[in-house]
Amino acid sequence: MESTWNSAIPLSLPDITEKEIAAVTQVLQSGRLSIGPRQARFEEMVAERAGRRHGIAVNSGTSGLHLALLALGIGPGDEVITTPFSFVASTNCILYTGATPVFVDIDPRSLNMDPEKVEAAITPRTKAILAVEVFGNPTHMDRIAAIANAHEIALVEDCCEALGGKCREKPVGSFGRVGVFAFFPNKQITTGEGGMIVTDDDRVAALCRSLRNQGRALEGFGDLPGEACGNRLGSWLAHERLGYNYRLSELACALGIAQMERLDDILDARRRVAMSYMNRIMDWKEVILPTIPAGHANSMSWFVFVIRLAHEYDQVARDRIIQGLRRHEIGASNYFPCIHLQPYMRERFGCKPGDYPMAESVSGRTIALPFYNKLDETQIELICHTLRIMIQREGLLKKE
Question: What is the separation of C-alpha 207 from the centre of its chain, rounded to a whole number of angstroms?
Fold first, then answer.
């Protein structure tokens, strides 16, 4: 993605205002740069938006997924059902625990896991389902939650791409035992790097707080350094379990608070950009547009704008179109290469082309177009015009 950030129209840009800059400056002036009031407030805000009692801030969505699985007791010998069509972190976090990812193919409309295939993949070794709301689309999350409940296995909701969305009027992040958001600069809101675990489970929340902080005490003063430890002398250096340094700084949390205060405006801006693309491209027979969840009971939170080329185009043609856009200084990328076909997955599990045909078919034809809050109509028109030329060029190449 680095090659797209230097483009005249980059693939993504964070929406940072003077409000965010002032918030971060205040933290720098305070002298309290970690484990402070901004962390607590940011956790409250994200948890409230997700309809959860607990929020646990961490340094990335990947870290959040890792801790969620550990807190649920997932480990060697266990299986976790997940999607092959996602960013690799959703599978890597399973591997970190020693558990085995079990992939199921996707629904071609939502691009999320096919619920029927999820249920068919459950075995006595299945200990969790890790379901991703791909590109911010919450479709099927209610059905997958029902499957998890029926089989009495945990659902981890990977909502890293879906902050602010809803499924049947329930907020994204509220469906699983645990939900995890992410705040990388291309997400709806950003903390630079960062993530948030949300849950109603007191025990899971306490474990995640301990695990993010080098395994310090579950209760009491385990998060506080030095003299703040009260009567528990030396508790800052007492570690009850193997833990990790997955904390999120006060600087990042201050940035997150300022972004959360603007979340609804940010989501509206992203919908505007998405609809502007849709209105321009909807009649192109060469392109399949994102499928927006039907009805008012679903609400998509736009993370990226990803189109698919029609079935007569292959991955080679798609790659030429992406390169053509980049030559014209328009950021573009392939979202996502299938996880099971990544070299380390093929080597480790013997995965091969054809294992998940729908995911592979979709993956070979996707194009992520520039998408961020302040993308204007002139830029969108230029992107669509250039994309049209690149597609027409492919048509001419086919005739040669």
Answer: 22
